[in-house]
Design a protein that fits this description.
Length: 238
């Protein structure tokens, strides 16, 4: 993946969430009732978010965590309340503004919560964000081909000391069928392309790279609820 390709891809994602689907994603990640396909997606995302959060210690005091692609900030706030110092980064400035508003409401309701959270709009690979004990990235790398996702993970690992926890789109026949159905909609109504991959192979190739010496494959878990299909993967080092 060249820098030009990366910039073009991130631009497409930013445009979608800032201008095309902002209101829909606010409803999906909020408390408002949803129905039909969105209800299955919300249920699947909740299960996945619980999975990723559950792979981290309950007591996160002293941990600095990057929520890469934080969206509306739900996961960031949960980790903050478990004691972590969290940086939530997202391409969408509008979603970051929504996350900040949610954080203010959560702090007002629970002013004594441990940890901290800071939401920023920008590139998850920005070295100025600093170093982290762990990186969590939910349903972000699903928009990258296998080789590109590997390179993104490798760059994140350079600034991470303990764990990479992320999701990939598994190359199942069901997901491919749903993506084919989605391609029938007008282009303006489509989300950024999802790239089905073999998650186990992506991780196997990632940890085999010389730059990943000391890292090893960890847990995996697939969530398939209606129109939501995603696979959680973990890479760790002592």
């Amino acid at each position: 993946m060249t820098q030009t390709d990366y910039i073009r891809r991130t631009g497409e994602i930013e445009h979608y969430f800032d201008r095309t689907a902002l209101d829909a994603w606010k409803r999906l990640t909020g408390d408002q009732p949803v129905s039909g396909i969105r209800a299955t997606v919300r249920k699947g995302r909740e299960e996945m978010r619980n999975t990723l959060a559950g792979w981290l210690p309950q007591d996160l005091a002293g941990w600095r965590i990057l929520d890469a692609g934080c969206g509306g900030g739900v996961l960031s706030l949960e980790l903050m309340e478990r004691g972590a110092d969290v940086v939530g980064i997202d391409l969408s400035a509008q979603m970051v503004a929504f996350a900040r508003q949610r954080a203010e409401e959560r702090r007002a309701a629970n002013p004594g919560a441990p940890g901290s959270v800071r939401f920023e709009s920008g590139d998850l690979l920005d070295a100025r964000l600093g170093r982290f004990d762990a990186v969590v990235s939910m349903d972000v790398l699903i928009h990258y081909a296998a080789g590109d996702a590997t390179r993104v993970l490798e760059q994140l690992a350079e600034r991470t000391s303990r764990r990479l926890i992320f999701t990939l789109a598994p190359g199942s026949w069901l997901l491919r069928a749903m993506l084919a159905t989605g391609s029938l909609f007008p282009r303006r109504d489509r989300s950024p392309a999802i790239h089905p991959v073999n998650p186990e192979r992506v991780v196997e190739r990632l940890v085999a790279r010389p730059e990943m010496a000391g890292w090893s494959a960890g847990r995996m878990h697939r969530v398939a609820v209606g129109f939501y299909i995603s696979q959680a993967m973990e890479v760790t080092r002592p």
